[in-house]
Amino acid sequence: MKKSKTTIHDIAGALSVTSSTVSRALNNHPAISDDTKRLVVDMARRMNYKPNRLAAALRSGKSMNIGVMVPMIERSIFASIIRGIEDEVAKSGYGIIMCQTYDDLAHEKRAFDTLFRSQVDGIIASATRSSGNMELYQKVIEDDIPLILFDRSIDELGVSAVVIDDFKGGYDATRHLIEQGCQKIFHFAGDQDIKVYQERLRGYQAALQDAGITFDKSWVINCPSNIEKGRQAAEYIMRSGNIPDAIFSSSDFAALGAMQILKGKFSIPDDIAIVGFANEPFTSFVEPAMTTVNQHGRDMGRLAARAFLDCIANRKDYVSRQIVLQPELIVRASSKKLK
Amino acid sequence: MKKSKTTIHDIAGALSVTSSTVSRALNNHPAISDDTKRLVVDMARRMNYKPNRLAAALRSGKSMNIGVMVPMIERSIFASIIRGIEDEVAKSGYGIIMCQTYDDLAHEKRAFDTLFRSQVDGIIASATRSSGNMELYQKVIEDDIPLILFDRSIDELGVSAVVIDDFKGGYDATRHLIEQGCQKIFHFAGDQDIKVYQERLRGYQAALQDAGITFDKSWVINCPSNIEKGRQAAEYIMRSGNIPDAIFSSSDFAALGAMQILKGKFSIPDDIAIVGFANEPFTSFVEPAMTTVNQHGRDMGRLAARAFLDCIANRKDYVSRQIVLQPELIVRASSKKLK
DNA sequence: TCATATCATGCAAACGATTGCACGAATTTA
DNA sequence: TAAATTCGTGCAATCGTTTGCATGATATGA
User: Fold this and answer.
1) A60-164+297-326 and A166-295+329-335, same CATH topology
2) What is the mean pLDDT of chain A?
């Protein structure tokens, strides 16, 4: 009972048939009679048979595992996406191998390596920065293994992607602030190497323009997505004396940091309204509760997984597609001016 | 250049040697001359050779993948642990396959299945509830695949585990509240099927007892680890009219929920001091900042991974061990009575 | 100089499943 | 009733590596 893993040959022996028959029976192959199938399945259970995926994978060329790469799992949006992928993939028989890139090229490279070596049947990934890693993705494509991108896509690759309309997200958020009566709206811009942040910035600018607000360069502050940087940005603003009546941050974390600092001197939202981006869980319970943009992570994951499944199903004539989800502005206290 | 994956045979052909030689050269086998090794490695690179792990795994019986099971990745403690495991495992050549159990038996079962089928060389897991899943873990042990538990261990299994001293965590937290002058300290107890919560409760009780505070059953309120349940618990308290001067919650989430409700009627910490557990990131920026207990997730992950590596290295005479980490009380505003 | 040890490599059998092809038996068609 | 189908299985090759054993070529020692 120790290590004697039972194989299909053992089953075959016990039943006086061939391993071919056992294999086919187990895989519900049409050419096997129902009686035989029953027998085999039964015996398999009785012998506590566990298929060896490796062998099957080696022979069939399909590992039945799919690689999922995200920047980092503790970001709620990515946790949601993974959840969505799991949902969708659950009954397809595929397993998931998760890797984190930590927004870092070296990690990303290693993650790809892990996935390659595991012979995953496909990769669902969110790219890190859009420069420097192109060739990594190129290689995936060259190797002809299905690739689906989500959240952070790379258009040049021409692969299927499911993303949200970051432009609209930025636009709506800014528009909302304008409707609240704000006129001098600053923007915390994220890393401009990353497309989603570019788009949010563009949306912001467009909304200002459409409202006839002349846009000042000093209004855009570069600010990575973390609390500390948000604080620093806010301190910078206070020092500069150039005070806005609203801030639209491309990230909840930065928005939070700013809010912490600004709360000391200003009333939020009355002096300064704040809107974040991503709908991190904490946005609902900080004070004041933060207006933000929901990205529908779970749906994104589901759709990405479905795209992958589709791609696998119609390998030959699969044509890649872009799925763009509409973001949803969630208005909370941090941006509601009483006026 | 399409799908013609290069194999060791291709390399062998190009070099007029055998695939055996190539294999050994690539694996740095001592019986191969340095010259040959150089040649082979070179050619491998030139031919863009990517080893097929599946084949290697099948033959050698080692998949070089290790399974990691956590309740859910968005809990910061688990994200940290995973990070720790990745740190430690990085240069060992092992890859990581992550699975989530969502604290649910069905998911847990499926996760095990995925891992088994992927032929992982070992499993590092945090058990869900300690009832009902015993046999799952038994099976792992029977199959003789290395198993390391973390955070939520199952003593009866007798496998290596790295946990924190939850008793001490509970004790210190309660003791701290007592030192702040609190006398009527309630406890939000987590699911008592889970050992860590039992221990926190025990620590709480012991601290009260040691301080000569007579403990009342009504002080312990059952409260799962989420915000909503924390709110409900707080509402229950307010309705009951039986008001404590402090709450030690076995979870940050529940503590947060309670704080949200209680803030309306009471001053925190002056009327009611609050201490949570886990050092979730939000504890540092809610208001008032929440006192909590840090669990050293990253270290926990590192140690668990190291235990696994040890176990693999000395397979025959490996003796399982318990590693108990000391938790660290982080005192913040929510429990500092000015007095 | 011959026997022995050391080196570097080749041979071929695994690992555990999948799968194209062949084949005999049972059934249908003409 | 002979020929043509259909059905259920078996045979054996294959997937890409690893690895125990054999082998021929050097090197070492007496």
Assistant:
1) yes
2) 90
